[in-house]
Specification:
Structural class: alpha/beta
Number of helices: 5
Number of strands: 3
Strand content: 5-15%
Distance between the termini: 26 Å
Shape: globular
Order of helices and strands: EHEHHEHH
Helix content: 40-55%
Radius of gyration: 12 Å
Low-confidence stretches: none
């Protein structure tokens, strides 16, 4: 078991800063569903093999602004 937990939050620059951190298999990643999907499509992380917890940032706004399709797409990655 690891002695520390790695948390990545608000990682906007996908390739310069985020990719190395995400490839290092963090325990927790915080982001919006669309940001998760962008990282997954870019190959920056694999949810099933590297992330223990997914926190949906701004979850209260996701549905009220019509981003339900992003949540469903993220769920397909998680439960594929």
């Amino acid at each position: 078991m690891k002695d520390q937990v790695t948390v990545i939050q608000k990682c906007y620059d996908m390739f310069i800063f985020c990719r190395p951190m995400l490839m290092d298999k963090p325990d927790i990643v915080v982001g919006t569903p669309s940001r998760f999907i962008a990282h997954l499509k870019a190959g920056n992380m694999e949810i099933k093999n590297s992330v223990e917890m997914v926190v949906v940032d701004e979850a209260d706004l996701v549905f009220s602004f019509g981003y339900e399709s992003d949540v469903k797409a993220l769920m397909r990655y998680i439960f594929a």
